[in-house]
């Protein structure tokens, strides 16, 4: 973490962010550092090819682009387990008035999943961004992937801001396959109390059972055979379910996976477009969505 800088912008917040990032790095047993050499950035390209199974002719990013981004002052980092790069993340700045960074791609090798490497990488990014005048980091994720929804909304306490249908268009890799690339844009408000708490191990609360007991309805459920079941969304709080393993389903039953994409888009996109707020994501597979009170 020696490459993180501190200034007087908000010394308490920056110092706490650096301490949380350093603790997460130690817990994960990795070393995270900023990257700018061609060799390291080629390593990022190879790692991403392996994670997304794209092959050499269709990499998610090229090393020469990463070189240019690093030279321009954007964020490019790698996570190392000994000498092996096991994770990488890069992002670029939004317009100056936004005081925001767009985190475009973050990936972690399957070999170290379960060690909280992704969490440590995001905390490193936060500690890097705060002293550079960045108040929020934005990125997109596939709302059908349960573990990503939990990681972003609950563990990091990022806010689901917008549903983006088929945002990237067709993507030729073994993760997205032929599915539409619907995404949710999240905003990680770096100085918010929820984010500060999440970064020291107190994730955002999310309890679907409690919400049901308090009057929530199921807007989209999951059948015993893992199919989408349309419900109702006429209550203040709506639960929106997702399958346990959409990536496996895309391989074994692409037609059913496509039904899930359409069903989730119909319910969750409409709710967010109407101004509803995702309060949290229960690890059991439920978005907890609150409609806003009419004025």
Automatic annotation (TrEMBL):
Keywords: Transferase. The keyword Coiled coil does not apply. This is Putative GNAT superfamily acetyltransferase. InterPro entries: Acyl_CoA_acyltransferase (IPR016181), GNAT_N_AcTrfase_prd (IPR038764). Transmembrane segments: none annotated. Coiled coil: none annotated. The keyword Transferase applies. The lineage of its organism: Bacteria, Bacillati, Actinomycetota, Actinomycetes, Streptosporangiales. It comes from the Bacteria. GO terms for molecular function: transferase activity.
């Amino acid at each position: 973490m020696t490459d993180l800088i501190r200034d007087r912008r908000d010394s308490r917040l920056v110092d706490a962010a650096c301490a949380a990032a350093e603790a997460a790095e130690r817990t994960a047993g990795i070393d995270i550092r900023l990257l700018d050499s061609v060799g390291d950035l080629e390593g990022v390209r190879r790692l991403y090819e392996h994670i997304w199974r794209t092959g050499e002719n269709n990499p998610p990013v090229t090393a020469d682009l990463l070189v240019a981004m690093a030279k321009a002052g954007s964020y490019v980092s790698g996570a190392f387990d000994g000498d092996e790069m096991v994770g990488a993340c890069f992002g670029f700045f939004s317009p100056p008035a936004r005081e925001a960074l767009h985190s475009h791609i973050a990936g972690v090798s399957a070999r170290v999943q379960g060690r909280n490497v992704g969490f440590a990488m995001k905390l490193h990014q936060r500690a890097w961004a705060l002293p550079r005048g960045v108040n929020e980091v934005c990125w997109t994720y596939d709302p059908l992937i349960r573990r990503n929804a939990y990681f972003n909304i609950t563990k990091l306490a990022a806010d689901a801001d917008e549903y983006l249908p088929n945002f990237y268009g067709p993507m030729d890799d073994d993760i997205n396959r032929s599915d539409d690339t619907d995404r949710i844009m999240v905003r990680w408000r770096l100085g918010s109390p929820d984010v500060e708490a999440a970064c020291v191990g107190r994730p955002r609360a999310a309890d679907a059972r409690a919400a049901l007991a308090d009057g929530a309805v199921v807007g989209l459920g999951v059948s015993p055979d893992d199919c989408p079941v349309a419900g109702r969304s006429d209550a203040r709080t709506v639960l929106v379910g997702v399958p346990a393993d959409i990536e496996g389903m895309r391989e074994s039953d692409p037609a059913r996976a496509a039904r899930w994409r359409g069903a989730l888009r119909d319910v969750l996109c409409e709710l967010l477009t109407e101004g509803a707020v995702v309060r949290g994501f229960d690890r059991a597979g439920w978005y907890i969505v609150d409609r806003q009170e009419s004025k």
